[in-house]
Amino acid sequence: MNRILVTGGAGFIGVNYVHHMIEHSDSAITILDKMTYAANRLSLEGLPGNRVKLVVGDIADAALVDELVAMHGVVVHFAAESHNDNSLHDPGVFVRTNVVGTFELLEAVRRHNVRFHHISTDEVYGDLALDDPQRFTETTPYNPSSPYSSTKASSDLLVRAWVRSFGINATLSNCSNNYGPFQHVEKFIPRQITNVLIGETPKLYGDGTNVRDWIHVRDHSSAVQRIVEKGQAGRTYLIGADGECNNVEVLKMILRLMGEPENAFEHVLDRPGHDLRYAIDSTALRTELGWVPEYTDIERGLAQTIDWYRSNQAWWEPSKANTERRYAQQLRNAS
Ligand code: NAD
Ligand code: TDX
C-alpha cells in the first residue's frame, strides 16, 4: 500500500483528492494541514480512520516536514494561500506558505529521496486577450500578475530548479479554475450560490467579461492521480477541460438554475490588476498520459454544486458572515 503525504488536504482541492484516492486506490494518506480559515474539518467526515490521518501543522515547519516526509513514499503538495483578493491585502503570508513552505518540502524530499508532485495554477502564465487564438501550454513564459500568482510562480521555479540541480523526482501540474463541493465561500461560484441562498445580492467584479477556464474538481483529482502514477520526472503538465466561460455567463447560469431573474446581481468595484482571460491547452496530458475529463457539462456541474451547497449549509454557514465582513473591509480599504 502506498503512503501519500497530502499537504493542504483539508482545503478544497486537497480534500477532494483525498476522497478520490480513498475511492480509487488502496493508499494510506496523511494530511498535513495548518487548518487556516480555508480548511474545514467537516470535509474529512466519512473518510476511513484506518487509511486517513490528519496532522495539524505548517509546511514551513522544517522539523515537522522532515519527519513526515521521511515516513512517506509520495508527497502531493496542495497547501497554499490560494485567494487572489486576500493576497492584495496581506501578501506576507502568501510568501511564507507558498514560497518558504514549498522550499522546506523540497529540501525534505531531496534528503529522503521521496517522489514529489507540486500542484500549481494557470495564473503563473499571466492573462490572455479575449480574442487571442493561443492558449497556455507548458512552454508559455511565466508572467504572473498578483501577489498570489507570483508566489505560485516562485514555488514552481523552485521545484524546477530542485529537479535540475539536485535531480529530485518531481512533477508539476498547472490547472485552471476549479469548482465543485467543499470550495470556500470566498471564491466566485460558492460566494454567489450562498449569496442567493441567504438572500444577499450576488457581486460581479467590473463588467464581468473576464474569462475563466472552468474544470470540475473531480477531473482535477483524476488528472493528478494519473500524473503521480504515470508522469515523467521533471515534467510539467497542464490540466484543463476546455471550460472557457466569462463571469457574467457563469453568474447568469447560477441565477437561472436557482430560479432567480438573470439580472439579479450587482456590479461592484473591480479587482485591481484583474486578469482578463485564462485558457489551458491540455493536449499533452490527454495524448501522453491518456487522461480524459468526465465532468465537462458546466451547466450540469453547476446544478450539482448548487445542490451540494443547498444540502450542506452547516458546512459553509459558519464562515459566510466572516467572509462577507472581510470583503466589506477590503472594499472600505480600497475606497
Ligand atoms: P484552499 O485555500 O481551499 O486550501 C488550502 C489548504 O492549505 C487549506 O486547507 C489550508 O489550511 C492549507 N494551508 C494553508 N497554509 C498552510 C501551511 N502553511 N501549512 C499547511 N497547510 C496550509 O485552496 P485550494 O483552492 O484547494 O487550492 C489548493 C492548491 O491548488 C493550491 O496550491 C492552489 O494554488 C492550487 N490551485 C487552485 C485552483 C483553484 O481553482 N482553486 C486552481 C489551480 C491550482
Ligand atoms: O465576488 C466575486 N466576484 C467576481 O466577479 C469574486 C470572489 C470573484 N469574481 C471574479 C474574479 C475572477 O475573474 O470571478 C473570477 C473568479 O474569481 P476567484 O474565484 O477569486 O478565482 P481566481 O481569482 O480566478 O483564482 C482561482 O483560480 C486559480 C483560484 O482562487 C486560484 O487559487 C487558482 O490558482
UniProtKB/TrEMBL annotation:
CDD domains (UniProt xref): dTDP_GD_SDR_e
The record's Gene3D superfamilies line, in alphabetical order, gives: NAD(P)-binding Rossmann-like Domain (3.40.50.720), UDP-galactose 4-epimerase, domain 1 (3.90.25.10)
What domain of life?
Answer: Bacteria
What Gene Ontology molecular function terms does this protein carry? dTDP-glucose 4,6-dehydratase activity
Tell me a GO biological process for this protein.
nucleotide-sugar metabolic process
Name what cofactor the protein needs: NAD(+)
Sequence ranges assigned to domain NAD(P)-binding in this UniProt record: 5-300
**Which Pfam families does the record cross-reference, listed alphabetically?**
GDP_Man_Dehyd
| InterPro entries per the UniProt record, alphabetical | dTDP_Gluc_deHydtase, NAD(P)-bd_dom, NAD(P)-bd_dom_sf
Keywords assigned by UniProt, alphabetized: Lyase, NAD
Q: Which reaction does it catalyse?
A: dTDP-alpha-D-glucose = dTDP-4-dehydro-6-deoxy-alpha-D-glucose + H2O
Is NAD given among the entry's keywords? yes
Q: Could you say which enzyme class this protein belongs to?
A: lyase
The record's EC number reads 4.2.1.46
Protein family according to the UniProt entry: Belongs to the NAD(P)-dependent epimerase/dehydratase family. dTDP-glucose dehydratase subfamily.
Q: What's the name of the protein?
A: dTDP-glucose 4,6-dehydratase
Which species is this UniProt entry from? Glutamicibacter soli
